[in-house]
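Entry for the shared binder. Reason: the reviewer on the internal report wants the predicted structure included alongside the sequence.
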Amino acid sequence: MIEKITFNIDLGIVGDPVLKFYIDDIEMPGPVFEHVCAFGEHTLRIMHSGKTNQTPEQSVTIDKVVIDGVNIRNIVWINSYNRPNYPEPWATQQREQGIELEEIVKGETVLGHNSEWTLPFTSPFYKYVMEWLQ
């Protein structure tokens, strides 16, 4: 079985980041799109790249994720995660000072570093939301 799902991701953007959106490994056209999903497990991913030491003011904030008309704010805070790609030499300097940099940051919606933000979900989507409400 399949269903068509509408995704609407509101972003706060500073600078000129490179953003790519994916459902599973399929690139989507942007922050607002429809996709036909087979029933089962999937991932929504946002890839943030293009930040360098010469673009320190660049960042992306995921302000709101609305799927099929449902604002899934609480699900995002609990179930999403971000994998930052920390810049060098900054990351090495931090580690040498004994500062532990998180490899996976749960619920992080501010993408200050180049990174991969991920939200696992299942289809049928309405069932996924109902299970979160229980």
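Summary line for the report: The mean pLDDT is 94.
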